[in-house]
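ugh ok so i messed up the first submission bc i forgot one of the chains. this is the corrected input, ALL of the components this time, i swear. 998 residues overall. if the numbers dont match what u have on ur side tell me asap before i send this to the collaborators (the ones from the other lab, u know who)
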Amino acid sequence: MNAKIQQLRGLLQEISDLHYISSLLGWDQQTYMPPGGAEARGNQLALIERLAHERGTSPELGKLLEELKPLAATLEPDSDDARLIKVTARDFEKATRVPSSHIVEFTQTTTLAQQAWVEARQKSDFSIFRPHLEKIVALRQEYASFFPNFEHPYDALLDDFEPGMKTEEVKTIFDSIRPKQVELIRAIASKPQVDDAFLHQSFDVSRQWSFGEEVITQFGYDWKRGRQDKAAHPFTTEFGINDVRITTRVDANYLNPMLFGTMHECGHALYGQGVAPELERTGLERGASLAVHESQSRLWENLVGRSLPFWKHFYPRLQQVFPQLSGIPLTKFYKGINKVHPSFIRVEADEATYNLHIMLRLEIEIALLEGKVLVKDLPDVWNGKMQEYLGVTPPNDEKGVLQDIHWSGGMIGYFSTYALGNLISAQIWEKINLDMPDLNEQIRSGKFEALLAWLREKIHRHGAKFEPQELVQRVTGSKIDPAAYIRYLTKKFGEIYDL
Amino acid sequence: MNAKIQQLRGLLQEISDLHYISSLLGWDQQTYMPPGGAEARGNQLALIERLAHERGTSPELGKLLEELKPLAATLEPDSDDARLIKVTARDFEKATRVPSSHIVEFTQTTTLAQQAWVEARQKSDFSIFRPHLEKIVALRQEYASFFPNFEHPYDALLDDFEPGMKTEEVKTIFDSIRPKQVELIRAIASKPQVDDAFLHQSFDVSRQWSFGEEVITQFGYDWKRGRQDKAAHPFTTEFGINDVRITTRVDANYLNPMLFGTMHECGHALYGQGVAPELERTGLERGASLAVHESQSRLWENLVGRSLPFWKHFYPRLQQVFPQLSGIPLTKFYKGINKVHPSFIRVEADEATYNLHIMLRLEIEIALLEGKVLVKDLPDVWNGKMQEYLGVTPPNDEKGVLQDIHWSGGMIGYFSTYALGNLISAQIWEKINLDMPDLNEQIRSGKFEALLAWLREKIHRHGAKFEPQELVQRVTGSKIDPAAYIRYLTKKFGEIYDL
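and heres the new structure output, hopefully the right one now
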């Protein structure tokens, strides 16, 4: 291997290790850390992140990347080395545009903002959070100003989560599906509602846990290279491609959070466990983007886990574990877990309404950045859009504008990745079904090896080598196209609600 | 505060945070990490330790310590700042004498040696471990050679664990107690043995766990600033003085490991939780030495936890939790948990024989360093001393020279701290009883607040401000003196065995 590439990999190993260490500090914080540990943990996280940032913006790295440019031009463009140089140069270029003073201020602001958000949400009082959010919006505007090369200020933010993706692309995609989703929801609302009361009863927590483990073991989650713990807000995290951990939460009186949460996080983890070993400790072992990552979690949670073939296999087992379901026929169960019901809270939303929650946030974020909406008017703007898209108005700010943690952490530009993930998942699903005509049959038999192998080969192993649009194009033959998702929703809910 | 001291504290904060991070990486490795995570974890630990070492030996720190010398001379000698400068300068002076090349070789050697030790122990074949141990002994000899200022090569090693302590002191102490302990054990052996069969039966694991929690909660362990997890080899670790965690192991068919292991680790943790907040992130928040730390764990495990007053309070509760003990009277239970029985394995040894296991190791370590015993002869030397001191000969090397992990990790110079901890615990105990004449009465009533407050005031809060001998002198009025431990053993086992 070229000595300079070797040198580059050496620098990246250290950065990657620091990120893994930071992830462990975060994992422990959300799973096992006693309350007393919070302050010290903040110091530890700040230190590791500073060290990682210093190394990611070091003159040594910059010089090396400069020296590698001529070599990069001679490499096969899709080779690991060519992509490694390209992605690292892109990250370096972005990171070095942001002054340290901005990062310090951003960290301090969001630390305070998160505390304020917790209090505001508890009291359902937006005014507590408002000054913090105003400062965060100003900081995000400033951040965008460091990237005058982007067309739209929101592009700079989006690019951190979806490399190469433009605001205009996202808006176009969302504009094309919004009327169709609104129309679908209205059609469903005119039909008799399905019954899901049986999901809301007492389910033994440890049995739920074991059932979830059973399902994801069958999906192919490798327990030698991961584990599952409890967390209030489930997440997946990686300390290496051979240590990819998931967390889940279990509600003693409602089956869905464990069931679909576990499968969702497993989808993320299968991606992490499937990255090619050659990419470990290069920075390329992360996924292509948040949306591509979400496409994997959504695929296992929804396309697989909320499908009829899946439950043809697993429902008898679930009934065995929970005899209280023995009187509920499969069809009724299937309809129940797929009940469409416009609600206030994004994380509880069904497949048909979920994207509308995201569109609302995207529109608000863009308007905030452009200065067309002011923070002080947010509760009204929020409630107005909820009524317009979902036909419901939150009774208070806790169930409205204060429901999500993201903005308090400065994560403006993040939400759209959730909806894009849904779209990509359906698009990939159509392609898989073309390649594997007996996929439904396999799922009905509880067989997931071929599905996982397909995802590994086409998506997982590449890590972050390709930008999201490029990867989707390679896998499906076209860029992100919402048509597949609309076809999926229309067919699925057409059958369930007899539209 | 003086600007230079401020600057010193800033540098030390970062070093301290790195040590805490390293501890978290280690804790996770031994509690929750899936097997696949091992290799990446090795990289992460190596990185953090390198960063900590770089900072602990940086020219910046050296220059600052030099500049602080005149100031240090003007400070009140026992003030935090004076001690901080003194301890940091001592650590810096020691650390900078060791070349990086030695550290790298030591790390590589011990990594391989630990793997070899595991295999050697499994196969009970010393020859697998022998070449590794030979290299380790040579490296420890080299390490000692970096410190020509010490009188004896073993002093340099001991000093890392027991600052200021000399080999000659330890030898003198051990020489004075060896004949008395051997004599005591012989006297016990001539008496009828006590019965402890009732401790070896089936005890529900989760009930054991809860009982252990109940006991240490009453001791004063602060669960808001700690937690307990399972580990194969129990240990206590700290990620800040407000996050001090213990681990324990539970044997489903033997009560002692959970019972005394939990109390032992709690003793360490109470020390960690009791350090003065002003010392956090200075490096002084660690304990005075391993022996002083062990004095705390042994005090709670043995002086409290294996005492009759303690069980007068807790035995009815234990019988409630485990009704299979209801036919066993308190006196029989008390004798059973204190059964003296010369055995092969140090960690399973009772209070009367424990120190002899340590003395054997100390003598061997010194002889190895001096070149008076060769590694190849170790099994024979070991078995000979076992027969001489304890009257038993291990049936194989697994139960003999291969039983402990320490040497494979390069920890030569460590063992004596265990025995010193026992001695200090008894010495402190006599002093506490003078200060608190109703101590036994309090323990009999399940009251530990005053005991803990005494330990906090006299020992815990000072962290590493004082060297071990200095601290023992301050607390008890004399340096480490084995007489108290001999008095304790003679009285306790005289009663139990009717000597």
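quick check: The CA atoms of residues 439 and 451 of chain B lie 8 Å apart. that seems consistent at least. The longest strand of chain B covers residues 244-248.
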